[in-house]
């Protein structure tokens, strides 16, 4: 008698599938998110608060000898990393009286010590500011000051950069420690001997008794639309949320994950490393991404999950073909910024790998995950998603760079298929913690009176669109930031540095597309001071001293005057479109020649060499 019923059920399921092709995937995804929500609620309510550190300690007691990190031929077990973090915490405690809540800046390379140093601090209830190891001088000082750290920890590789700012650090009473046995500079205190002599006994949880879901766990720096990098506050709640991404993407405890992204970013550190740590996953950590080592590493360590940014998968596709490239165990790739063309080629060459494209900004209170097989989409909208992350796509005026408002002063939702600004409602469940020490920048990310008078939204600054099937597609980033080599470049920061060159009067910085590259490369239109010529070497000196390589403008365009909008913003759109082809531009153009270490006139030969990739950018 159950036969006709189950037959009916099959037909219903079949019809559902026909009518709603993503029904089952949506359900599976929603169930997973629900499980995450329930777990988060449990952790939130537990007294004392069950933090990610406690989660790690549970993993340690389950399998102390399981490998946590493989790095440059050496394996570090869960137990070892735990003990090492106790030693670091104790050595630091002996040197400085760290109180729970004191922030400590980490200026470290992608090495295992990054992980246990952070863990040690977390065990003391101290938030860590994760400094980008590419930044120097003024930017570095700025980043330090916004998190209020009185202690800076660095490694031998970065000692020069610290020495450069040491006088200012001393003035500000910031103590500097280096993870090395000795140091010839008097004000940099070597810590390694002290760490190795310190006890590895567990630290009392009482040391972090005030930590809860709302306390700051780490500061992660993001390049905003204006000025220096901003310190996004990542709370323990956000840490939990982001570390669940692996789970949402289908990663399990038996997986082995390859982390080749910088640990000072949310993706490499929180999503990859901390996400792995909680579930007891083994991490293969790399100093930096290397296309030539990628698949050999994957084979050697039986890697099953890899992280990417759009550029890195493109680099893999650009490597010469090999016979054994399908021979690996990678089953999932998680990341963002992947283009459809690269995706297809990646699959063609390297086999059946599930790509999980995630849309999330470090400080944003919303995420989209591509959990279906839709090429090009960053994710899907569904009821649960709308409930967890109430959001809207609103009409945006690209020229004025502000949302379009109706006669009532409210924003207007875009129609299906139309590009709009993604804004996400700030709620208990999706809070926005803002930037440390920067009320003004925090305020700038807020949008009021969006759909109702008095409501409050987070402005992602990203333009996206969704189609009839509710797939969401990333379109562009609004305004003044562009991405190059996976890093955000804040145009006004670059402009500030350019105007430090004695010949430069004003600078308008923007990013231009280069065939065969993700993102946009830096270019600047400048005007010169009365009676000055463009000084190639001085300008080069300024940008190379003060900007990381990816932020230096590779092209300079000399203009008689800059164009401004009605609201006195520099006009960029036309310049972006005109690009850097000397055949089409009358203004004098220059190119940053990395071999000659100066700017040189951009000739048609150079232009051709760039197009044919003889010159690598
Ligand atoms: C990878 O897997 C193979 C076979 O499953 C095993 O023999 C080998 O020891 C593994 N390698 C590592 C580094 O775990
Ligand atoms: C989303 O994932 C599917 C397969 O998992 C893939 O085909 C598609 O290209 C992905 N979208 C993006 C933008 O990567």
UniProtKB/TrEMBL annotation:
The subcellular localization recorded is: Cell membrane
Coiled-coil spans are: none
Residues of the AMP-binding enzyme C-terminal domain: 493-569
Top-tier EC class: ligase
Reaction equation(s) it catalyzes: tetracosanoate + ATP + CoA = tetracosanoyl-CoA + AMP + diphosphate; a very long-chain fatty acid + ATP + CoA = a very long-chain fatty acyl-CoA + AMP + diphosphate; a long-chain fatty acid + ATP + CoA = a long-chain fatty acyl-CoA + AMP + diphosphate
Keyword Transmembrane helix applies: yes
Span of the secretion signal?
A: 1-21
The biological processes this protein is annotated with in GO are: long-chain fatty acid import into cell
Which keywords appear in this protein's UniProt record, sorted alphabetically? Cell membrane, Fatty acid metabolism, Ligase, Lipid metabolism, Lipid transport, Membrane, Nucleotide-binding, Signal, Transmembrane, Transmembrane helix, Transport
Per the database record, which ranges form the AMP-dependent synthetase/ligase domain? 58-379
Offer one Pfam family short name for this entry.
AMP-binding
Q: Look up the record and report any one GO term of the cellular component aspect.
A: plasma membrane
Q: How does it sit in the membrane?
A: Multi-pass membrane protein
What's its EC? 6.2.1.3
Q: Does the keyword Chaperone apply?
A: no
In alphabetical order, the GO MF annotations are: long-chain fatty acid transmembrane transporter activity; long-chain fatty acid-CoA ligase activity; nucleotide binding
PANTHER family (alphabetical): LONG-CHAIN FATTY ACID TRANSPORT PROTEIN, LONG-CHAIN FATTY ACID TRANSPORT PROTEIN 2
Entry similarity comment: Belongs to the ATP-dependent AMP-binding enzyme family.
Among NCBIfam families, the record links this protein to: PRK08279.1
Please give the name of this protein: long-chain-fatty-acid--CoA ligase
Which organism was this protein described from?
A: Salarias fasciatus
């Amino acid at each position: 008698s159950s036969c006709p019923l189950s037959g009916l059920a099959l037909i219903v399921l079949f019809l559902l599938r026909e009518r709603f092709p993503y029904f089952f995937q949506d359900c599976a995804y929603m169930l997973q998110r629900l499980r995450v929500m329930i777990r988060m609620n449990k952790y939130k309510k537990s007294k004392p608060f069950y933090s990610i550190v406690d989660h790690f300690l549970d993993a340690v007691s389950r399998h102390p000898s399981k490998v946590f990190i493989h790095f440059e031929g050496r394996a570090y077990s869960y137990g070892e990393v735990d003990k090492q973090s106790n030693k670091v915490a104790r050595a630091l405690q002996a040197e400085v009286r760290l109180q729970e809540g004191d922030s400590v800046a980490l200026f470290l390379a992608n090495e295992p010590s990054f992980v246990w140093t952070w863990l040690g601090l977390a065990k003391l209830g101290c938030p860590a500011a994760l400094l980008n190891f590419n930044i120097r001088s003024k930017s570095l000082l700025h980043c330090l000051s916004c998190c209020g750290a009185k202690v800076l920890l660095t490694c031998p590789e970065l000692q020069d950069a610290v020495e450069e700012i040491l006088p200012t650090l001393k003035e500000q009473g910031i103590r500097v420690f280096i993870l090395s046995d000795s140091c010839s500079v008097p004000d940099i205190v070597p810590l390694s001997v002290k760490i190795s002599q310190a006890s590895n006994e567990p630290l009392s949880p009482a040391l972090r008794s005030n930590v809860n879901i709302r306390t700051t766990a780490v500061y992660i720096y993001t390049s905003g639309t204006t000025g220096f990098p901003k310190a996004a506050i990542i709370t323990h709640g956000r840490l939990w949320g982001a570390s669940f991404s692996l789970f949402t993407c289908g990663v399990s405890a038996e997986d082995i994950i390859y982390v080749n992204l910088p640990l000072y970013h949310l993706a490499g550190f929180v999503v990859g490393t901390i996400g792995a740590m909680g579930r007891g996953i083994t991490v293969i950590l790399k100093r930096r991404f290397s296309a030539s080592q990628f698949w050999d590493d994957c084979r050697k360590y039986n890697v099953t999950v890899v992280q990417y940014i759009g550029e890195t998968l493109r680099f893999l596709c650009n490597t010469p073909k090999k016979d054994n490239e399908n021979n690996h165990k990678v089953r999932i790739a998680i990341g963002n910024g992947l283009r459809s063309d690269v995706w297809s080629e990646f699959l063609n060459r390297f086999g059946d790998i599930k790509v999980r494209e995630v849309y999330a900004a470090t400080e944003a209170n919303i995420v989209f995950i591509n959990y279906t097989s839709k090429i090009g989409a960053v994710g899907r909208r569904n009821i649960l998603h709308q409930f967890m992350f109430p959001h809207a796509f609103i009409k945006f005026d690209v020229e004025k760079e502000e949302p379009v408002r109706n006669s009532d002063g409210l924003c207007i939702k875009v129609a299906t298929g139309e590009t709009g600004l993604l804004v996400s409602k700030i709620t208990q469940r999706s809070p926005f913690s803002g930037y440390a020490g920067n009320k003004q920048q925090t305020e700038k990310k807020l949008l009021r009176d969006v759909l109702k008078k008095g409501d409050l939204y987070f402005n992602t600054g990203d333009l996206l669109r969704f189609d009839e099937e509710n797939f969401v597609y990333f379109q562009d980033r609004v305004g003044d930031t562009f991405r190059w080599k996976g890093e955000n470049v804040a145009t006004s920061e670059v402009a500030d540095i350019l105007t430090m060159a004695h010949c430069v009067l004003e600078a308008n910085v923007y990013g231009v597309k280069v065939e065969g590259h993700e993102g946009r490369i830096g270019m600047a239109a400048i005007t010169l001071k009365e009676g000055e010529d463009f000084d190639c070497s001085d300008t080069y000196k300024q940008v190379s001293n003060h900007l990381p390589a990816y932020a230096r403008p590779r092209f300079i365009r000399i203009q008689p005057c800059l164009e401004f909008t009605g609201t006195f913003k520099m006009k960029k759109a036309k310049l972006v479109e005109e690009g850097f082809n000397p055949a089409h531009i009358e203004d004098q153009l220059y190119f940053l020649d990395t071999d000659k270490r100066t700017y040189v006139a951009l000739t048609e030969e150079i232009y051709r060499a760039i197009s044919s990739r003889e010159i690598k950018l």
